[in-house]
Amino acid sequence: MLDNNNPVPLHIQLKEILLKEIQQGVYKEKIPSERELIDKYSVSRTTVREAVTALVYEGVLQKIHGKGTFINQSPSINEWLGYLSSFTETIERMGMKSGAQLLEQGRGSDVEIAETLGVEEYYYIKRLRFADDQPVAIERHYYPLEVGLLLEKYDLNKVTLYEKLEAEGINLHHAEQRIMAESPSTEDAKLLGISDHTCVLVAQRLITNRLGNPIEYYHSIYRADKYAFSLKMSRGMRVG
């Protein structure tokens, strides 16, 4: 139940309770009405609306005007931009099970990638990523050699790379990312279980530390039918 003495805001507590109940199958098709949730949890209308809206943004729920708020039976994965999240964090926030299969790792010296990182030699990791056991993405991570070698001791089929890097004292401070649509290679399409004539989403991201030094160059592809990127925007006051 909700705890008024908990420093976590009530709408966040309620959101987590609703998400857990959805995952446990308490609600099959739709959640209770706004009034029913207000009465059940003794909270304000604002608290209920904020909790439900958060789950809608995350793709767990969808509102249908005049009918209610329904549970997405096959929710797409929705990554909100503006916060540097790992694939694992995004998938688990959706209430899904994250998985990884290591495809390749080692040293590389491709000129373009090396120049992006400002090095002559780098360390790369290529993994196939899963959500609820379905292949969703292929991630390619490139690191300055001294950074990448820190990850060699871990089982890369199981760990979250950003979590391990931070545990090793590596600061992931700032990122710039570009997203585009492309056709996958025949090999990548086969790994993802899609046609090579299908468009995929491509994310290219450069992460730097507080000093502005490159820590990771990230190039990954995502199934466009399973994954989406979202961004909140506002229109500021115009002068003149």
From TrEMBL:
This is UbiC transcription regulator-associated domain-containing protein. Keywords: DNA-binding, Transcription, Transcription regulation. Gene3D superfamilies: Chorismate lyase-like, Winged helix-like DNA-binding domain superfamily/Winged helix DNA-binding domain. It comes from the Bacteria. The keyword Nuclease does not apply. The lineage of its organism: Bacteria, Bacillati, Bacillota, Clostridia, Eubacteriales. SMART domains: HTH_GNTR, UTRA. GO terms for molecular function: DNA binding; DNA-binding transcription factor activity. The keyword Transmembrane does not apply. InterPro entries: Bact_HTH_transcr_reg, Chorismate_lyase_/UTRA_dom_sf, Tscrpt_reg_HTH_GntR, UTRA, WH-like_DNA-bd_sf, WH_DNA-bd_sf. GO terms for biological process: negative regulation of DNA-templated transcription. PROSITE patterns: HTH_GNTR. Residues 8-74 form the HTH gntR-type domain. Pfam families: GntR, UTRA.
